[in-house]
Specification:
Blueprint: E1 16-21, E2 27-28, E3 31-32, H1 37-54, H2 56-59, E4 60-61, E5 64-65, E6 67-73, H3 107-116, E7 120-122, H4 128-142, E8 148-150, E9 160-170, E10 178-182, E11 193-197, E12 200-203, H5 205-212, E13 218-225
Parallel strand pairs: 1-6, 6-7, 10-11
Antiparallel strand pairs: 2-3, 4-5, 8-12, 9-10, 9-13, 11-12
Helix pairs in contact: 1-3
Amino acid sequence: MNRPFVAAIPRPEAFKAIVVITDDRVNCDNYNDGNTDAAGTAAAAQFDADLLALSPAQFGDATKRNCVFHSIIALEPYDPNDLTVAWPPDAPITTKECSPGAANVGTGYQALSKLTGGLRYPTCGLDYTTIFQKIAEGVVEGAKVACEFALPVAPPGETIDPATIVVVYTPSDGSPDKTYHQVADASLCTPTSCYIEGGLVKLCPEACDEVQADDGAKLKILSGCKQDVPM
């Protein structure tokens, strides 16, 4: 066991929620939590660095992660009266196990959850349905607006003119709409522009940062149609 596994990687900007379920500890390849707070923290830091280096486009970097790591492991309950209450990210690593059915407490997984702002739940005696619902709610709340879009589809009998495409951002605070005008390619990006590449409309990096910082942002793509000129 104990090999972190990520499958079916989605589009780069999609936020990733990684969930491990085990009654054991981290002990594989270059990662060994030693069943201690210190070794678990070190193993988590190494795994995190390796994951971010693997694909910054997918997982982000240490200053702006695009992933979170949740653990369902053999640690003691945070609330003995309600096993579905998660250990919050700011709670310390515990070396006390839940019962029955614990092999090791998974200090490395705990440290990964703390490092990425994830949650920790005990494996013992649980109905996982409630836990996965809570994790899913957190993913939805943490989801960011996309910065890439498929080209719009023209109405029947008409043809979209790609050169006319712009992206309009409606801020959630009620301030006026902002229009991101199209530039020829990514090398000409400005904070208020977009471009078309590979059949996708893409916001330029600073424009993307702006809309993703707004949890209630709304975006729409506007375009004109080509005029048929009689021959």
